[in-house]
Amino acid sequence: MTALTLSTAAAAGLRADAIVVGVAKGAEGPVVAPGAEAVDQAYDGKLAAVLETLGASGAEGEVTKLPAPSGFKAPVVVAVGLGAAPEKDEDYDAESLRRAAGSAARALAGAKKAVFALPLADAADAGAVAEGALLGAYSFDAYKDNGKSAKTGKGAKNARNGKAPLAEVALLGGKPRDKAYKAAVERAAALAEELNRARDLVNMPPNDLNPASFASLAQTAGKEHGLKVQVLDEKALTKGGYGGILGVGAGSEAPPRLVKLSYTHSKASKHLAFVGKGITYDSGGISLKPAGHNETMKCDMAGAAAVFAAVVAAARLGLEVNVTGWLALAENMPSGSATRPGDVLHMYSGKTVEVLNTDAEGRLVLADALWAASEEEPDAIVDVATLTGAMMLALGARTFGIMANDDAFRTAIHEAADEVGEESWPMPLPEHLRKGMDSPTADIANMGERMGGGLVAGLFLREFIGEGIAWAHLDIAGPAYNEQGAFGYTPKGGTGSAVRTLVRLAELTAAGDLG
Questions:
Q1: pTM for the full model?
Q2: Which residue among the candidates 187, 363, 434, 504 is catalytic per the annotation?
């Protein structure tokens, strides 16, 4: 991952490939943001005018490159847009800094070192810039030749148009000896590395990432970070009666797994359980997906990837809270042994489910994992899943929905997501939609009314939560996989959606600020 340092040196004397400065939209044109005073002074105070001449406006994510002023050791100045300038006496918000840093880092692919002279009002701002830069520099190139083929015999470059990710970031204005600044940057580095782990998992092709290999990766990480990892294979799942997970995985040659990752802290008084949907490939099963809907279905394990990354991040940050992650892993394939529409599954909770559509499989694996999590009686359970296309229709491609059995808990998650820069929206669980899942054969069907399908899925999951436990469901179907172009610190492909929200929930719980 990109290296990160704090620096109090003068901008002109730093050896780097570029100096990054912020520019915002003012009432009468672009304005240079704090942090870039020395650079602006070297342009005789006319940097904003020069940028305006070049077409810059300060709009969010806008990147403008120009030659550095005389006397600077860095040859290039990169001006990145911060969006609207804040009101007088107000600072730039953290998400604007994250996105600007991410845009700059992406634009500097191929550079060895860049100095970021963005606004840093305090240590939290330093953490935001660090986080944005590290996430923006992300590149997934594990499966690309990188110029190493035997035919060419040439040395490696990388995947992003033949350019390696930005190798090093120096945060100008950061205080390397200040404990708060050091802690903020160290947190950003750990969080970014784990979020990028989730991105890597989502981007991996399904011929390499199946339930067993995913479980193996969790075991490796557990050993490295002091987590207790328990893996239930198909024999253990059969013995335990995990009919939902087994039913979904029945059609695949790659058998399912249920993985439990446990992080414990000796001073913890609270226990959180995170449950992730981990369908390593979703063909729809017998209810096969139509043409054009299969190509990105390697991303259907993004919820499990987020849970995995969040538990490891909690361990790395040493949070005073116990966190258990449950990864419900299966591959949903059609075959002679696959679950059929009309089959009835005997779930781990003891309930029976009539399967009306095998493409509504995520709720089946989650149901078993949610009940297993409930048995430990945690203070709260949060599940994360790329669960329904209906949620994408409702909220678009950048916002995840939040449903819960407790309004205050739902609000707390929404506020935590907003704090870390993840777009989310509270959604209801209308009781009248529950009747649509009544089955003449089983306790409940896995499908209900078509309209409000995302809410129906939430109501189904609620059936498998232990009594008295606060629970929330995050449907990340939209933001988990970015099929459009990169923006801010968000790459194309896997995004790591919900990782930061889960980690923030763990931090708030550890601090006693959540329930």
A1: 0.96
A2: 363
